[in-house]
Amino acid sequence: MEHPEITQINRTGYPSMVEQSEHTGVDYFGTELLAGDDIVEDPATGEVVLKEDLEKYLKEVYEFKFSQAE
Fold it and tell me: Which CATH architecture has domain 21-70?
C-alpha cells in the first residue's frame, strides 16, 4: 500500500508551478530572485544581490572588513 499523496501524484502529476512566486532572475551568488525580494544593485558593476547578502558581497568583492566596536 502506498501513501495517499504518492497515489495522487502518480494520478495527477506534481503540483502546478503556477503556485510559486514569479522568478525574476538570479543574483551575483546564483541565488534565484523572486518578485518582491529586496535587492541591492552595485552601481559600479551593475551586479545585483539580495539585500540579506549585501555584507557577504561587500566582503567578497570589495574586501570589506566587518567587526564589532569595543
Answer: 2-Layer Sandwich (3.30)
For residue 48, the model assigns a pLDDT of 97
Grid coordinates in use for 70? Answer: 569595543
First and final C-alpha spacing in the chain: 63
Domain ranges of the chain: 21-70
Alpha carbons 47 and 27: distance in angstroms, whole number: 7
Q: What angle do CA 50, 55, 61 make, to 5 degrees?
A: 95
pLDDT, tens only, 1-26 = 788 888 877 888 776 655 667 888 99
Set of cell numbers at residue 53: 547578502
pTM above 0.70, yes or no: no
